Amino acid sequence: MSAVMASNPDVELQDACIRFANDPLGFVLYMFPWGEGILSKWSGPDKWHREIFAEIKAYLEGDSTLPLQIAVASGHGAAKTTFFAWMNLWFMSCRAHPQVVCTANTESQLTTKSWRELAKWHKMALNRDWFEWTATTFYMKGHQETWKANAIPWSENNTEAFAGTHEDNVLVQFDEASKISDKIWEVTDGVLTTKKNIWIVYGNGTRNVGRFYDCFNKNKKYWKTWQIDSRTCQAANKEYLDRLIEQYGGEESDQALVRVRGMFPRTATRQLISTESIEKCMDFEAEGFEFQPKVMGVDIARFGENSSTICVRQGRKVFDIEVLPKQDLMMTAHHVAEAIKRERPMQVFVDGSGIGAGVVDRLRQLNFPVVDVNGGNSSLNPRFLNKRVEMWWTMKEAIENVVELPKNSRLKEELSCIEYDYTDKGRIRLDRKTDIMDKYGFSPDLADALAYTYAYPVADFSEQGENLEPAVFAD
After folding, report:
1. Where are the domains of the chain?
2. How many helices (H) and strands (E) does the chain have?
3. What is the pLDDT of residues 36-50, one digit of tens each?
4. Is 122 helix (H, G, I), strand (E, B) or coil?
5. Which CATH architecture has domain 11-260?
6. How far apart are CA 231 and CA 261, in angstroms?
7. 208-235 burial, b for 16+ CB within 10 Å, e for fewer?
8. Looking at residue 439, what is its pLDDT?
9. Minimal CA–CA distance to 74: which of 199, 216, 171, 172?
């Protein structure tokens, strides 16, 4: 390479980048010192890297007016983050005034792994002097505002950071995409509206629900997908992967499917309610529910990102769950009161813990006979850690026996993301709301409202007149 570059290095590099504008593989092979230094054992990209590079080249040389969307699920050690870095360097080098947006499941993943990998390959690139790398930005010197890649930690409350990129030469990359909020995916859907833009998402298939999972399933026709078995990759430690498979109990175990084979689990480890059960309920139509009492569950928001929600269930039918606007407690109580007057439920279970106590007090002041339910209180059944776990477990059993759930993707994600475990004393416990927020960036507000409808059995007195002997107990 040094002989090629000897005459006029910058002109040679510019010509190369023009030549490789539609050829990311050619760029990567040309731009890095393969067979030398830390790359002494490597002759170039892996087989799956080359396949995706070929797909990108064919797309750019074709006449499609749609964005190219690529999803990659792999086991550990497949060099996904390396591919992430190559794509950034190629796009920045071979496009005029490009806009590159990169994010990951956590700020730590983005800054200490994905963005750090870009820094490593930037230092090895022949055209490294063209660019400046910082902790959050990678830009062409002299064009800092218009020729850049940004590392943006995602936030459901800062989706506008992803929404302002409506132009040519856009590359969007999601690392560890399975744990990035659907809201960020939805905003990105509207970003790539111009021609010849590329969106690539990478990750381990840790969850069998959500937008990353959908890329390989119901939305597969919109995505070019790769599922990479790490044992086929040159950079992976094959001996260690074989040991993992043995440790996990074989190739068909969920852990091996996800961590080695680049597939999705049949049921997420410790998943409380299976995705299959939820999907079955969303396709089910209940009958005879009209003769059962209505029960209302109300979940009260505690944090700025959360929402207060109202769920009405009548026997085996769950109606659309209402999400209340952000408002003070008095207005929340007003909305709940209006819902009670409209729906006329037999019983209303309200989240009375924390600030929810104020809503309960206001409703009782208005003479609505609501039941105060504190999820942190003791459960009736000692096998559960607290009342919240008991409600969720009762709801789980109802879903497994099939109820009609509204077709709501957010509800599906919330119900399927909750995992259970055991305390030292053998009692069942669940992920806390704060744990869910930290892991997935959302709070299970819809699912919690549904769980409140299972707080206690409800007697049906509807056909008893003044004789208050209960005839039927609703599940």
Report:
1. 11-260, 275-453
2. 19, 18
3. 999 998 999 999 999
4. helix
5. 3-Layer(aba) Sandwich (3.40)
6. 8
7. bbbbbbbbbeeeeeebbbbbbbbbbbbe
8. 72
9. 216
pLDDT at 190: 83
Sign of the alpha-carbon torsion through 114, 117, 123, 128: negative
pLDDT tens figures, 275-299:
889 999 999 999 999 999 999 999 9
Amino acid symbol at 227:
Q
Distance CA 176, CA 167 (A): 25
Rounded CA separation 26/39 (Å): 17
What is each CA distance from 295 to 312, 370, 473, in whole angstroms? 6, 11, 12
- What's residue 186's pLDDT? 87
The C-alpha atoms of residue 390 and residue 395 are separated, in whole angstroms, by 9
- Which burial class, exposed, middle or buried, applies to 236 when counting CB atoms under 10 A from its CB (0-12, 13-18, 19+)? buried
> Is residue 158 within 8 Å of 183, Cβ to Cβ?
no
110 closest CA partner among 73, 75, 84, 132: 84
Is pTM beyond 0.70 here? Answer: no
Q: Is residue 294 classed as helix, strand or coil in its secondary structure?
A: strand
272: which 2 tokens? 């409380």
The CATH architecture annotation of domain 275-453 reads 2-Layer Sandwich (3.30)
What does the DSSP 8-state code read for residue 271? B
How buried is residue 261: exposed, middle or buried, by Cβ count under 10 Å (0-12/13-18/19+)? buried
Percent of the chain with pLDDT over 90: 67
Buried b (16+ CB within 10 A) or exposed e, 88-123: bbbbbbbbeebbbbbbbbbeebbeeebbebbeebbe
Tell me the one-letter amino acid at 308. Answer: S
- Tokens (6 digits) for 4: 């090629």
> Largest Cα–Cα distance of the chain, in whole Å?
101
Distances in Å between the Cα of 17 and the Cα atoms of 13, 24, 94 are: 6, 10, 5
Q: Which residue(s) pair with 102 in the sheet? A: 151, 173
Give which of 236, 455, 235 is closest to 345, Cα–Cα.
455
C-beta separation of 450 from 311 below 8 A: yes
Residue in the block written with tokens 């609703």 = 474
Is 446 within 8 Å of 309 (Cβ atoms)? yes
Rounded (10°) angle between helices 80-94 and 24-31: 100
| CA 153 to centroid of chain Cα atoms | 14
Q: Rounded to an integer, what distance in angstroms lies between the CA atom of residue 48 and that of residue 268?
A: 26
Identify whether the C-beta of residue 174 lies closer than 8 Å to the C-beta of residue 103: yes
- Quick one: how far is CA 282 from the chain centroid? 20
Whether the Cβ atoms of residue 245 and residue 234 lie closer than 8 Å to each other: no
Which residues 6+ apart lie within 8 Å of 128 measured at CB?
122
